[in-house]
Amino acid sequence: MPLPYYPDWTKATGDAAVQLTAITGAPGNLWPYPLGALPGSIEKGMPKLEEAYISGYVLPQHVPDGIKAIGELMVTRGHNVPESGKAYLYLVGIDSDANPYFRGPYKPYPEHYYNKDAGIPVHDLFGRIDPAKPGQTNL
């Protein structure tokens, strides 16, 4: 099954809308994100989901399409090699009516693989998307 790619902003609804906008209450922090509240297209489009985290921008940025980027969502999934995982980032934004949107996936690592046993510094996970260039999918 091919991984979904969202070339444009996708509006979030239901639990995902609530969870994605909750990051504005404590920007600059990293929070666990419930897998059950992922937007349905992400949850259904990725096999072997393991974890999700979200972080809000301290300084949200206006980006093309009338959206303000407010943070990033990261989802991880297992891979065929036991110590290997894959990470994908999504840009989270709101429009002028505070409707939440997401865009991605972005791949933060070469081939978006990482070694789960080695650990990864938080600064290597988040803050790598350039909100001014939301069409760029490889970081």
Q: Would you give an account of this structure?
A:
The chain has three helices and seven strands; from the N terminus they run βαβαβββββα. A hairpin with a 5-residue loop joins strand 5 and strand 6 (100-106). 13% of the residues lie in helices and 41% in strands. The chain is globular and about 45 Å long. The protein is mainly beta and 139 residues long. Strands 1, 2, 3, 4, 5, 6 and 7 form a seven-stranded antiparallel sheet that branches. It has helices at 14-21, 40-45, 122-125; strands at 6-11, 30-32, 49-63, 67-78, 84-94, 100-106, 113-115.
Q: What keywords describe this structure?
A:
139 residues; mainly beta; seven-stranded antiparallel beta sheet; 3 helices; 13% helix; globular; disordered N terminus
Q: How many angstroms separate the termini?
A: 23 Å
Question: Spans of 5+ residues with little confidence (pLDDT < 50)?
Answer: 1-6
Q: So what's the overall shape?
A: globular
Strand content: 35-45%
| Main sheet specs | 7 strands, antiparallel
Mean pLDDT: 80
**What letter string, H or E per element, gives the SSE order?**
EHEHEEEEEH
Structural class: mainly beta
Number of domains: 1
The number of strands is 7
Helix content: 10-25%
What is the number of helices? 3
The rounded Rg comes to: 14 Å
